[in-house]
Amino acid sequence: MTTSDHFHGFVVTKPETGQRVDWTALTTADLMPGDVEVAVSHTTINYKDGLALTAKGPIIRKFPLVPGIDFSGTVISSSNPEFAVGDYVILNGWGVGESHHGGYAERARVKGDWLVKKPAAFTPAQTMAIGTAGYTAMLCIMALEAHGVLPGHGPILVTGAAGGVGSIAVAVLAKLGYEVAASTGRPEEADFLKGLGAKDILNRSEFSGPAKPLGRERFAGVIDVAGSTTLANAISQTRYGGCVAACGLAQGMDLPGSVAPFILRNVTLAGIDSVQAPKAKRIAAWNRLATDLDKSKLDALTVTHTLSDVIALAPQILAGHIRGRVVLNVA
Questions:
Q1: What fold does the segment set 6-118+301-329 form as a domain?
Q2: CB–CB of 118/88 below 8 Å?
Q3: What's the chain's average pLDDT?
């Protein structure tokens, strides 16, 4: 943790051609407006961060910018009455790492309304092992519950199960008593997913062809990170009265399916947004994670790197080569 006004961070700039990412000396004068300043101790890498660092997607909307949509750390100054110096805090989303300096630096200044206090059950590192991916997974599970999809109602399909959202979703669902069907394109991860609590391992090729208007009823609920054809197939195979929580578009933004499941089977498609979710819902999700996520399972699906490794990790996460979650030590 830096104690002076000087610190370092990754800064993305946009020259006339291409994009640059450099480890840069900064001062507090370089930080953006906000009423809470945080000494960042840990961050992580999500699919969106991979897109931002590699310029494979239009994630960063303002240059120069410190990327990183997540961070955890300690408050070092605050004019917000909700936070005091020394508080451990978490940030997920709110445009941080997109249009506001993010977590890939030793300091951040943000609005206190964007922060959540760290649950006592977790260390700062564990909160980033969860990160936006795990917090999004919990929002998906809460959506299934809100639509009446409960343990005992039937299997829950989790797509992209070996990734960040998927692995946390599998672990939490299993602890809650759900029967989990984990879909992955990496069959070598079967033992890993069964260790998290998955009952069945499905090859993602089962959901890769053109979707039938109504497929065989298989799943009481779905948590989908892919979108496109995978989501259309999952919807067509959801049982009567089921719910599909859609939180990602790794495969695409299109939805080449039919309205038949919604009309003839009373299926609900629940969109899950983690970026602008209201604070009360965020706190509820983090409190649920504190009780419903087995920390031994969290440790089993987590690897730790230093922040300097994030440049090499970015193309790996886009290629689907990263299993589970990555914690990045910022110190």
A1: Quinone Oxidoreductase; Chain A, domain 1 (3.90.180)
A2: yes
A3: 96
